[in-house]
Amino acid sequence: MSLRRKAARTDPPEALHARVEEFVRACRSPAIFEPGEKTIPLEPGRFDLQIRGSAVLLHVWNAETSLVRRILRIGREENGRIQLVTHRLAQGEGEMLVLDLARDGQEIERRAGRLEFRERLRRMLARQFVGWTIAQISAAPDLEHSLSPAYVRALLTKGSSAIAAIAADPDAGAGNTRAGVCDQILSFGLIWLHYLRQRERRRTVEGLKIFLPQGRTAVTSSRLAFLDRQHASYELFAFDSQGFTSRLDEKNYGNLATSLDPAAPVLQPAGPVARWIQRLIEEFGAEPVARPDGVLSIRLRGLEFARTMGRQMTYGVSEEWPVTDENFYQVEALARRIAEERRADAEARESAFYHIAPEKWLESMVRAAPATIDGSLLPEPLYTQVPAVAGSERGVIDLLGSERSGRLVVMEIKAFEDIHLPLQGLDYWMRVKWHLDRGEFQKRGYFPGLAIQPAPPRLVLVSPAFHFHPTTETILQYFSPQVEVERVGLSAGWRGSLRVVFRAKGAEKPA
User: Fold this and answer.
1) Could you read off the pLDDT of 251-274 as tens digits, one per residue?
2) Which pTM value belongs to this model?
3) 442 in helix, strand or coil?
4) Structural domains in the chain plus CATH codes
5) Using CA atoms, how far apart are residues 143 and 188, in angstroms rounded to an integer?
6) N or C: which terminus of the chain carries fewer CB neighbours within 10 A?
7) Contacts of 106 (CB under 8 A, 6+ apart)
């Protein structure tokens, strides 16, 4: 079986490099934007654009984050922005926008679109909630309270009662960006609901009404089933291009499109491959990790640089080449460079190998010492992304393990701040519970020899302590009691060793 992935269509690297470099140079205030992520300025000395072999790599970093993307080709270019089709390690194609923050025209255009949709929502609310007063409606950003301009927010009142409403503009973004705006609405909806409850002390803000374009409700409806109905009420509405709305039946909340593949047997390395892997383990401390697809991934501090399925082996980080006895020295050279540059005390921290895939690095630390995160955890097996969650840009690592008692534990790992971490963890938790309730894990070969408990799994959110978003506690307040959540905050030096700074149950504040 060949391990070589189908090559993505790319533009000539020299032409790509020259065009992107020319565009950035022409911007007064260049920045990049990826769906679901913060806009990152391209500051002098904090980004690097270079050709490596046949690839054009863009590396951007600042005090909060770091990313490396392979640029495949240029998409649209209009209104002072350029769309790049990129490749993200092990996650396929995505998109990135390079834009000029200094161009006022872009913001004017966006503001006009937001105002137009605001008025559309006003009409929808007036038709749907007869007798209620629209006391406030806005699409303006409020960074102080983490309220995004990607959504229109409203407050409706009737006497001493009130309800919060939020809607996603169907024309916001394009492609994956548009889907991301819709799928992320619940995080901002809960933040808006909580903000109004703190502000409107003389009224009872009963719950949250969510408005999404038709065909974009599945993710949010699945999440609503696991919120606490004693704490607030929730309703989900779908609207069409004419602004007509329909309320989704609550009986359909919680429906999941999920599947659990049989546990893939990992073919044991044989022949020269076994010898090569042993050499990489002994010389560089390589970590063999079984992937869900049955491939044995060879990693250094979480970064996959080789892979095998028994008698075949390929190597490379952004590209793949077959390994032979004649070129094995190149595999060793790559491993040596990663080992030198991807370590906690690395001197050259501008290296792409240091910054790339931080979640994978943190995952490798957790795999090496799971008891540090939770003393009840069995050291193995630890499964990654089983079952899979749709969406290639989640930016988190899912691990599924078990307590010694047989109770399953879902771990969601994030190396940098992410406002959506609680709901991303819920996405994985609900899928694990769905398959657990149907007894599918043991039927399909997971956790061999272990008697799995039928109790709902625990959810553990793992991140450096200072990278939990300030709204994490707010969002967790609205989770159903059946979702048992614990946050584990790590010290800033997690790349060197794991040290737990705090543990917090549910929405409680860290001690």
Assistant:
1) 888 888 888 989 888 778 889 999
2) 0.78
3) helix
4) 13-102 (2.70.180), 106-252 (3.40.1350.10), 272-355 (no CATH), 358-505 (no CATH)
5) 12
6) C
7) 79, 80, 81, 99, 100
